[in-house]
Amino acid sequence: MASQQGKVGKKFHTLERHGEAGGLCDRILATMPVGLVIVDARTPNPSIAYCNPAFEKITGYASAEVIGRNCFFLQGIDTDQDAIEQIHQAFQLGQECQVVLKNYRKDGTPFWNELIVAPVWDATGELTQFLVFHTDITKRQLAEQQSQAALQQSETRLGLALNAASIGVWEWERQTGQLTWSANAESLLGFPPGSFGSTYEAYLKCIHLEDCDRVTEAIAQIVQASRTENLAGRLFSLEHRLLCPDGAVRWVAVTGTLFCNQTNTPTRVTGTVMDITGRKQVETALWQQATGERLLRTMNQRIRQSLNLEEVLKTAVSQVRQFLNTDRVTIYRFDSDGRGVGAVESVGTGWTKSLGTQIHSRCFGENHLPLYQQGEVQAIENIDTANLSQCQIDWLVKFQVKANLVVPIVQNKTEVKGLFLNPHTSTSPPPPSTPQSSVLSPQSSSNPQLWGLLVAQNCTETRQWQASEVELLKQLSVQLAIAIQQSTLFQQLEAELVERKQAEEALQKSEAQLRKKTTKLKQALHRLRKTQTQLIQSEKMSSLGQLVAGVAHEINNPVSFIYGNLTPALQYAQDLLHLLNLYQQHYPQPAAEIQTEAEAIDWEFLVEDFPRLLDSMKMGAERIRQIVLSLRNFSRHDESLKKPVDLHEGIDSTLLILQHRLKPQGGKPGILIIKEYGNLPQVECYAGQINQVFMNLLSNAIDALEEGITRESWVMSHGEESSDRQFPIANSPLPTIRICTTANNQNQVIIRIVDNGCGIPEAAQKRIFDPFFTTKPVGEGTGLGLSISYQVVVERHGGQLKCLSTPGQGTEFVLEIPLQQSTASATPLPMAPSQVA
């Protein structure tokens, strides 16, 4: 406003210079909303030359009453003298000035006047006039005074509230580093007035050493963050410890608000500080209580979950050291003669380990062991000030101990009693129920036994053991005693269980041996029965072979005689008939008797039928010879050693013997035989045994087809054959047996015997080669045919015998026989076939 009114002064001079002051200037001055007085500066005592209507309205003076007077007639005795002096200086030096001062109107009422002096120079640079502007700011001034009074009142109330809430106020000017604290902030924290650091660096020196780096880093991060984002007006808070002049440590909560300039540079921080020592103590106590309860719950749970004593003890020392934040926690275990040894231990880095160290001395046994046996606790805050024996001091110094807490672990005792303290030991008072005496009287208990000691040690510094810490270790020692008792009972029970288990194992072993022997006897009996049955079967087959061979031999002789005479007999008959024909030609009229006899014997038919009769006899003899030869070939009774044979001959002989079962009978269709013989070389084998295999397989195939014929269910159209069937039978309207022989490139011959019967169930296929297993009704099969066949092919000839069958699609047996046999399989039957699962 002052600069604007200064410009008005320059305009006034310009208008005056152009001679327009008499018209336009008067109108401008008359309409101005602020009071204006023009003072003549060329007189020795500057006096008023002009005042506008606004001035008259503000002061109550008329223009005639003002002109010719100086500007100071409005002041009173309480007008600010400094403001008056500034006005004098402006008039004397020809300068601008702006002041606020208290003036009085014509009627004597005061008003607050905002006065601005603006000098006016002419064209030659001579000071000619002063324009003095008057603005009534009474209302604004009164409002400011009321606001200031209210502010002072609020500050007073805030101070009372801060004092009541233990809160102090601080302000930090970052550019100057000046740190200002309120009086109540210093008194709350125990600092004499003005002694709480007046700079940021001095304040940092009062912060606890463990918190100083954290506080410094946090403040630096806030300042650094303010450079990249606008943090002005945001609150931040810190909690840390302060070191008071009396040596006490107090916790404070510091909150602050950051003020920044236009470039986001922090310039000032204002905030509060509150003493939260009480709250921290309560939090610490609650934390210790909660941690102690959690420790006890953890140990209780560990004891219930595990009966491993070493694991429980290791958990205990680790948890206790963590809870107490101490340097070493050890559990010593005592034997029956009072010797103790460090059983488990948890120790901080850099401190001597006491694990495995023995404690046994006359000093310990006389002074401390009896008290520990009675359940007494020993707490030593400082080994240097405690009244300890030299032997105990030496022991503690050996392990760098400065404070020591010992809690006995006593079995058969429901309670661990209070502290026994040395005369110079200063510790927190025990619970009210515990008398404060050097040694407490033991309470009676039944057979208490000292198992060991739970020892917590501070090596870094001395320590005042709290009653809550001692009480927690006492409760923990009771739990450990329970765990030890449970572990002892468990070990006893485990030993009993081991003995019982050993006895049971011995009994089971004996029973197992007995069962094993019984099983061996059963197996031996089973093998004996199988061998006996197989021997009987082999003997029967051998006897049958001998019988067949003998019968064939006996039949062969007369048949050979008859067959050998049939040819000349036929020739003789033809000669006789030729002779008779000659007689008939030369003697056409025979005697009556001859003619009668010729008619009686039907000479013409006899001549025609007799040659045919002889031919029929020859054919019958030939058939008998073939049957006898087949019987001899099948039995091979005279061939007990391996020799090359033609397998086709054996198959044909078997089919000839079974011919009567292949023909149609009683209205039932016959069985069609399809031979697909390949070009087989002779095979070295036991011919009789191989023929027996052919007989068993073909007989089983005929049995399956006869069963199907009975049920009218032989396979006539199977659709898709099984993928395992390499040589399926084509759709056939008759029961059919297909025999295929081939030779492969592995020096083996392969014989496939396939039928289109009803097939073998899958469950039966797994046991098809087992001795005495049969799918036929009782009394119709021995269950030895396939078992013996398997043994002949696999064990006697080193080949393979496989069964491929699908119910409803027939059965295929595959024989694989080597062309030459090894010496290992050169044992002929009788034999005991192996069981194939």
Structure, briefly:
This protein is an alpha+beta fold and 837 residues long. Strand 20 and strand 21 form a beta hairpin.
List keywords for this structure.
837 residues, alpha+beta, six-stranded antiparallel sheet, five-stranded antiparallel sheet, 22 helices, 19% strand, elongated
Describe, in plain words, how this protein is organized in 3D.
It is a single chain. The chain is an alpha+beta fold and 837 residues long. It contains 22 helices and 23 strands. The strands form five sheets. A six-stranded antiparallel sheet has the order 13-12-11-16-15-14. It has a five-stranded antiparallel sheet with strand order 2-1-5-4-3, with helices on both faces. Strands 7-6-10-9-8 form a five-stranded antiparallel sheet, with helices on both faces. Helix 11 (309-324) crosses helix 15 (467-586) and helix 20 (687-711) packs antiparallel against helix 22 (785-796). The longest helix is centred in the middle third of the chain and has 120 residues, at 467-586. The radius of gyration is 68 Å and the shape is elongated. The model is unreliable at 17-21, 421-445, 713-727 and 825-837 (pLDDT under 50).
Secondary structure: elements and pairs:
Blueprint: H1 2-17, H2 21-31, E1 35-40, E2 47-51, H3 53-59, H4 63-66, H5 81-93, E3 97-104, E4 110-121, E5 127-136, H6 138-164, E6 167-173, E7 178-181, H7 183-188, H8 200-206, H9 209-225, E8 235-243, E9 249-260, E10 266-275, H10 277-305, H11 309-324, E11 328-334, E12 340-347, E13 358-359, H12 362-367, H13 369-373, E14 378-380, H14 390-398, E15 403-411, E16 449-458, H15 467-586, H16 592-601, H17 603-635, E17 643-645, H18 647-657, H19 659-662, E18 672-676, E19 683-685, H20 687-711, E20 736-743, E21 748-755, H21 762-765, H22 785-796, E22 800-805, E23 811-818
Helix pairs in contact: 1-2, 10-11, 10-15, 11-15, 15-17, 16-17, 17-18, 18-20, 20-22
